[in-house]
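Take a specimen:
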Amino acid sequence: MDMYREDVMDHYEHPRNQGSFGDAQDKDVLTARDSNASCGDMVKFYIRIAKGKIIEVKWEGIGCAITTAAASKLSEYLQGQSLKAVQKMSEEELVREGVGFEVNPGRSKCLTLPVKVVKKLCRS
């Protein structure tokens, strides 16, 4: 198995930052969710902000290995980032920088679902 597949499978089998915050009504917590109607995957992100920085990230969801690994990797990447910097990033940049792997075009919706949720969250 190549390193790319090993990394994806590791994040799928041992997702990082999975869960939610106890008090999602906290004014410093942004939340957003979305789903992929074609396959049923669903992802919800929770991001805690302090002084313009993302200090904690959690996510919940159901999905395939690609969606789960992408959400897990993205949650690690976001911690410590400036909210403004993430807001300025395109979806393509977030995939490249935050997710760090590519898939064939038939699975691109799985890969980009967590990114779309984060972009939606940053607009709220």
About this structure: The radius of gyration is 14 Å. The CA atoms of residues 71 and 114 lie 5 Å apart.
